[in-house]
Write a structure and sequence with these properties.
By secondary structure, the chain is an alpha/beta fold. The chain is built from ten helices and twelve strands. The strands form two sheets. It has an eight-stranded mixed β-sheet, sandwiched between helices. The chain is globular. The two termini are about 25 Å apart.
């Protein structure tokens, strides 16, 4: 359904996303994880065509249903087949328009009459565990809680039953119970309508619960990608291993986290960008740039130390 080839994105001529290639099939859910500043949200914004005036795609292609999304004549695809859920819903909801009018604006090309549209909106909000739908539809965003606004934002993305949903940290502002409800709703959407989803998050637990495929980004690079079970139980990149060791577990041990910080964008790095933070790095890692290489069926990594050692099992978060 969607194929990204060697995508390079910059802001103010500073490279942010570098040589990212990714494919998502119909009905598939891909979760992308990484620390803040890894380029995850920038990747989604590029797919959606909302990089802003300072953002630029320097190289690569984004093909959706055999159509190049980088061509202006294909921009109408976004209104029907691709939608996005942003991290802070209140920034993307119209503060001076009631919720129902915002739904109707998105549904303006829908041939149903107003009564049918209203019924479908109410049913959707109910499926998002918003039982007081009638009140919500007559409300302005500032009259609703952050959690309700986030689920309304998800509803706006879902109402036209798009083929692809891009979800940018859609659960980060929600409590654990509502997080679980949103994740379950996204899974039901995939199961009921065969919708594809790309979701980015720093929360490995959320991604482990929803994704079929997990990709790991670091310093604008996709450093590892593969089936969920492979990534969680047999990570090959040292960054992925340390990310997983940073996840709190049920035995009460406090995770150590990863020392250091992501390099500043624009830094000149000859070898592996994770070199300074890696616990097993060698001189070859500093001078040799790793490339994404197949290590198993559907499993790719860009670590020079990709071995089967140090397996990590995260049954607690599945």
């Amino acid at each position: 359904m969607l194929t990204i080839n060697n995508l390079n994105i910059s802001y103010d001529n500073i490279p942010i996303v570098r040589d990212v290639s990714l494919t998502i099939n119909k009905g598939e859910i891909i979760g992308i994880v990484g620390e803040s500043g890894s380029g995850k949200s920038t990747l989604l914004r590029a797919i959606m065509g909302v990089l802003g005036d300072d953002g630029k795609i320097d190289n690569g292609s984004i093909i959706f249903d055999e159509k190049d999304l980088l061509k202006k004549e294909n921009k109408n695809i976004y209104s029907k087949d691709i939608s996005m859920v942003f991290q802070q819903a209140t920034l993307y909801l119209d503060p001076i328009t009631i919720i129902e009018k915002q739904f109707l604006e998105i549904m303006k090309n829908n041939k149903e009459n107003k009564k049918e549209k209203h019924k479908n909106i109410v049913n959707l909000l109910n499926s998002l565990h918003l039982e007081d739908a009638e009140r919500i539809l007559k409300s302005y965003p500032f009259e609703l809680s952050g959690g309700i606004n986030q689920r309304v934002s998800l509803g706006l993305a879902m109402i036209n039953k798009p083929k692809l949903i891009l979800a940018d940290e859609p659960t980060s502002a929600l409590d654990v119970t509502v997080q679980a409800q949103v994740v379950q709703t996204l899974k039901e959407l995939r199961n009921n309508f065969n919708t594809s989803i790309i979701m980015v998050s720093h929360n490995m637990g959320v991604i482990a619960n929803i994704a079929d495929i997990i990709g790991v980004m670091y310093y604008g690079h996709l450093v590892e990608i593969g089936p969920k079970k492979e990534i969680l139980q047999n990570p090959r990149h040292q960054y992925t291993k340390q990310l997983l060791k940073s996840v709190p577990n049920l035995n009460g041990d406090i995770p150590k986290g990863i020392s250091g910080r992501i390099p500043e964008f624009g830094s000149v790095i000859e070898g592996c960008p994770f070199y300074d933070r890696c616990i097993v790095s060698e001189h070859k890692c500093k001078i040799t740039k790793p490339v994404l290489t197949k290590v198993d069926n559907g499993h790719f990594t860009s670590c020079l130390h990709a071995t089967e050692e140090n397996k990590i099992y995260l049954g607690e978060i599945l």
